[in-house]
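Design job #97: recover the sequence.
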């Protein structure tokens, strides 16, 4: 935070799709046997939500219509079990020099229409996971309607599963109104197809070079960098972006479990052209 800036509220915003593996629950609805087999075939190390032997069009359609039943069928992710340490580290870091103002954990339950009892149960779960060291507030808001202005005033860390959609929508607004005190935390999941990812990255690079050509130089050749490093290098000019391992957003398993580090064979996937 800049020395003369007014203190801001410090919130950790996270959605239910980060805390529960609703992707795997969707796959189980499609074909439970195939879904189970994917766990050992590269599920935890995938870089796209595209699954061998599963129809991508059907997955997209089902996932877009996920509901409370999908959530009930979803198992907790590693991120949920790590939430206590994440919040504790956050409070310690921002308490060092008196910067911490109104810390809170903000749970976004969208798109799930939970009852009052279900919301209370979810809040209790988070309080237990975080040892009740931080207040929990619940919102229900499409992430695409959460503006950079609201983020600036309320959030320090923004945990978001579908990160690319939000950044794509608000690129131009962020370019003119930088959020230096905010970091988006996302899974290492690129847009669903390789071609889509390359196109988006090229457009983003063009926008940033246009707006920041006088303020900063991009010293690394983006074509020589992997997708996530390149994206972070571009986004850092107006907001922080940290990619966690895909495994953190998957069905939780003990860290000591040594999963076979296999990559999906996408030649088996049923693709669609967008």
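Job complete. Output follows.
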């Amino acid at each position: 935070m800049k020395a003369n800036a007014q203190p801001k509220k410090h919130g950790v915003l996270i959605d239910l799709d980060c805390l529960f593996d609703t992707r795997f629950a969707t796959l189980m609805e499609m074909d439970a046997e195939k879904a189970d087999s994917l766990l050992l075939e590269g599920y935890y190390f995938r870089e796209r939500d595209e699954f061998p032997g599963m129809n991508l069009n059907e997955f997209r359609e089902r996932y877009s219509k996920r509901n409370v039943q999908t959530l009930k069928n979803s198992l907790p992710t590693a991120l949920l079990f790590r939430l206590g340490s994440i919040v504790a580290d956050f409070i310690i870091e921002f308490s060092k020099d008196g910067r911490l103002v109104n810390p809170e954990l903000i749970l976004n339950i969208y798109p799930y229409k939970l009852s009052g009892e279900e919301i209370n149960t979810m809040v209790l779960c988070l309080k237990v996971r975080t040892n009740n060291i931080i207040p929990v507030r619940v919102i229900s808001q499409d992430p695409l309607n959460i503006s950079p202005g609201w983020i600036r005033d309320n959030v320090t860390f923004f945990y978001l599963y579908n990160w690319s959609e939000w950044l794509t929508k608000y690129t131009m607004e962020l370019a003119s109104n930088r959020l230096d005190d905010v970091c988006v935390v996302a899974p290492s999941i690129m847009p669903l197809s390789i071609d889509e990812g390359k196109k988006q990255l090229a457009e983003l690079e063009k926008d940033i070079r246009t707006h920041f050509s006088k303020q900063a130089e991009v010293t690394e050749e983006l074509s020589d960098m992997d997708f996530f490093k390149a994206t972070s290098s571009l986004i850092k000019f107006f907001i922080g972006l940290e990619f966690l391992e895909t495994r953190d957003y998957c069905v939780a398993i003990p860290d000591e479990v040594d999963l076979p580090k296999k990559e999906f064979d996408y030649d088996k996937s049923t693709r669609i052209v967008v």
